[in-house]
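Minutes, project check-in

Agenda point 3 was the complex the collaborators sent over. CS summarized: two entities, 444 residues total, and the question is how they sit relative to each other. Sequences were read into the notes so everyone works from the same version.
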Amino acid sequence: MRWILTRIIQYKNFVLFLFLLGIGVTLSTYRSIYHQTKIEKLGLVVSGSISQSINDSKSYFSLKEINQKLLLENNLLKQELIHLEKSGSSFKEVEIDSKINDYYVQSAEVIKNSFSKARNILIISKGSSDGIKKDMSVISSEGIVGIVKQTSENFSSVISMLYQDLKINAKLNNSGAFGSLSWEGRNPEQMTLSDVSVINKIALGDTIVTGGMSAYFPKGIPIGTILEFDKPNLGGYYTIKVKLLNNLTDLEYVYIIDNKKRAEFLGLEKQSDDGSR
Amino acid sequence: MVQDNFKTLFGFIFLVLLQNLIFDNVNLFGYSCPAVYLFFVISYRFDKSQFALIILGFLLGLTVDLLQNSSGANAISTLFISFIRPFIIKFSFGVNPDNISILSMKTRLDKQLLYIVLLTFIHQFVLQSVAYFDLDHFVLILRNTVMNSTLTFILLFAALNLFKKKA
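CS then shared the predicted structure for the full assembly.
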């Protein structure tokens, strides 16, 4: 007994190192989801409030750019409106009733953004008190941004598209072929679209949009264009490099989309899963 | 003694804030982000308890992790270099370093350089390996390691000269 104790005291640094290493590894491999979420929530509150104060002073300097972006978006919307009015008078009969609308949109400010790590997280200035919930989708005026990971009262963390383990359902706008979009961790402007079968014809510059085959993103939100692609000789699947439309490195404002039928969708999916077992 | 502990605590908080407020926003070339909080481990006195350093190093990394919203890579890598620091000290300064802290060390610049380079490089290598955790990304890990440790090294060396005790 004494011998064991002496050994432990002799090698106490090493024992401590192993012990703390164990804690560290546990933290990073997501063994205990409960503790992980609790601790992450604490981190979110602290880093959210710190980043908020920095961002408040920083955003003042980019007001001009933000205005320009808003103007551009307004122009586009106005164009669409005119188009609609021209194409038929039916536009006025469509009432935009939020009860009927499946998607509810609200805006938020990005107060912390990262894009240089393997798994990137954004923090936005709205939280559970504004009705933000986990798994809502986040887009910007130019394309998609990510998925809400966690909420505290006034802040939410968002898994960026630049997140190595994230796969997003996407499709080619022209042919309608589906694939899954992922990030390889090199360039914040490029993503990889895989699982598109070679029976589909694709060309450089084709647009990629969200596929809508999940409960996250609504269908048809533009993501990017095809930069280059590899066609394997023996058939199979393309490897497509996609250039993102939106610049994820200078996000200022984002929109959060709440899919009102999400619960229904998930319920049905679960039911059919249970049924097939 | 008490004053020393306060100094350590103050350094801890100051470095965490410095890292989170300023250096996490540095994205040189789009991906590199220096880890200036390593200054804590580097400037920790040689004669003080290593047991305490291991705990403090772990807490330091964990705090940075929480503020960066990353999953634990900083905690593991800072813990690792806190643990292997005595071996690096032995390797770079010999068995008996002629001073109790790198802050009051004046001679042997080459050995001081070796000490800092080893610590930053190993730290970054462990950090990036844990973050990517995939052999397919080995080139990427190496690139990030080299970039980040170069940047961190420059900053730490500058800071060290700034805080050196004048005789």
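Noted in discussion: Chain B has a mean pLDDT of 85.
Follow-up: revisit at the next meeting once the mutant set is ready.
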